[in-house]
Amino acid sequence: MKVAFAMNDENKITESHFGDAQFYEIYEISESQEKFITRIMNTTEEEEGHADPKKAKGVMSLFKGEDVRLVVSKVFGPNIKRIRKKVVCVLIKKDTISDNIKIIQNNYNLIVTEWEKGEERRHLNFKFL
């Protein structure tokens, strides 16, 4: 499964909203392995207003052709309602990608089950793991 991590520097998940990250690190993650795929710079325009639907559409268009199914961030704004129709959204508290990969791997079956719900999926909160 391809996963996009919201980042603002080389080592840490962003503290800001998912859509405000400077870049996204894309990984292929299975229950037992992970592989870095690419980095995508966030080139979306600034929001015209809070929860601007154009922002959600712009962020999701960055992943076009990447087959991203899971997005990971410490914070999501109101646009989470829009983007979770396309991907599974995971709230986390750990700072590093490596720590969060372990959480994803340990909860892989739960994430796959949520993905399979389609537009009815909910976000997953792993902030307490």
Give a short overview.
With 129 residues, this protein is α/β, with parallel strands linked by helices. It has four helices and six strands; from the N terminus they run E-E-E-H-E-H-E-H-H-E. It has helices at 53-62, 80-83, 97-106, 108-115, and strands spanning 2-7, 23-29, 34-41, 68-73, 88-91, 124-125.
Q: How would you summarize the topology of this molecule?
A:
Layout: E1 2-7, E2 23-29, E3 34-41, H1 53-62, E4 68-73, H2 80-83, E5 88-91, H3 97-106, H4 108-115, E6 124-125
Parallel strand pairs: 1-4, 4-5, 5-6
Antiparallel strand pairs: 1-2, 2-3
Keywords:
alpha/beta, Nucleotidyltransferase, domain 5, 4 helices, 6 strands, 25% helix, globular
Poorly predicted runs of 5 or more residues: none
Name of the CATH superfamily: Dinitrogenase iron-molybdenum cofactor biosynthesis domain
The number of helical elements comes to: 4
| Average pLDDT number | 92
Following the backbone from N to C, one meets helices and strands in this order, namely: EEEHEHEHHE
What is the fold-level CATH name, i.e. the topology? Nucleotidyltransferase, domain 5
